[in-house]
Amino acid sequence: MTVGEAAALIRSGDVVAFATETVYGLGANALDAGAVRRIYAIKGRPASSPLIVHVGTIDMARALVTEWPQTAQRLASRYWPGPLTLVLPKQPHVPDVVTAGLPTVGIRMPAHPQALELIRASGCPIAAPSANRFTQLSPTTAQHVRDAFGGSVPVLDGGPCSVGIESTVLSLATTPATLLRPGMIPRDEIEAITGPLAEPAAGQSGHGEPHASPGLHERHYQPRTPLLLDTTPHPGRGIVLRLGHELPAGAREFAARLYEVLHSADAQGYDWIAIEPPPRTPEWDGIRDRLRRAASKS
Ligand code: AMP
Ligand code: MG
């Protein structure tokens, strides 16, 4: 499929999977409530979980929100296009289905050139969650998307994702700003622009889902095979993934490879997959968050 064909589908209210630098997204015209509803149906995602809106320009972002503070401008100039989602008060024309009924909308400008081309050719902002079934592993290749949905979803192949885990999500709708989901952008770099960040309030899952009871989406990003965060042997047949061996020892490289390695281990029919816990230093925050949720039994 070409970018032009994918853009034509988006314009006609269809859903298309496309590559971003974080993970593959399941995209639809963000301003078309019917098209966005189809994303939830395909994913099996609860309506209480808001979608991120992908834009091609800062002007496109500003048209979705009622305020664009100095901090948003500074963060966007520094990190867009890139893996940072900004949550701001939404304009009334942004459908409630996109934001799960919240008065705010999460927006980012993806850095993958093909994603930017797709948004520009579609002429509209594109709402997209990760292109996997709800709670399962995120896709970082076109094949992962095909494995999840078969032929039922058209996929624009943009190669493997370079960042490899989901974006950092930052709410600028609160004072101070709140880090809703850690990603690969270092927290101290963000704080140099925003000042000290607040933690998500009780009742939020830590993934910015205030409609969900705490912990409801704790289970997330999961392989089918039970995932353990240690290197001790377990009963049955399994695989131990160690830093500097099966997985890179550097945070960026580890993130870029993580879901790919988990997808392929998951396909082997093991009884368990064990991962050596990464260092407790800030550059691993986003990775530790995803691994904790991938290993969660609750
Ligand atoms: P995913 O599409 O799986 O990357 O998840 C999107 C995530 O973005 C949600 O789980 C929230 O953490 C966050 N998000 C998107 N929109 C909003 C919003 N309006 N308010 C708070 N968090 C949001
Ligand atoms: Mg997801």
Describe the protein's architecture and organization.
Helix 9 (251-266) links the parallel strand 11 and strand 12. The chain has helices spanning 3-11, 33-43, 58-62, 70-79, 96-99, 113-122, 142-149, 187-194, 251-266, 285-295; strands at residues 16-18, 25-29, 52-54, 84-89, 104-108, 126-128, 155-156, 168-171, 178-181, 227-228, 238-241, 272-275. It is 31% helix and 15% strand. It is an alpha/beta fold and 298 residues long. Helix 1 (3-11) packs across helix 6 (113-122). Residues 210-216 have low confidence and may be disordered. It has ten helices and twelve strands. The chain has two domains: 3-194, DHBP synthase; 227-294, no CATH class.
Q: Based on Cα principal axes, name the global outline.
A: globular
Q: Gap between N and C termini, in Å?
A: 39 Å
DSSP strand count: 12
Kindly name the structural category. Answer: alpha/beta
Radius of gyration: 18 Å
Query: What's the rounded overall pLDDT mean?
Result: 93
CATH class of the largest domain: Alpha Beta
Q: What ligand molecules are bound, each kind once?
A: adenosine monophosphate, magnesium ion
Fill in the keyword field for this structure:
binds adenosine monophosphate; binds magnesium ion; single chain; 298 residues; alpha/beta; 15% strand; 2 domains; DHBP synthase; three-stranded parallel beta sheet
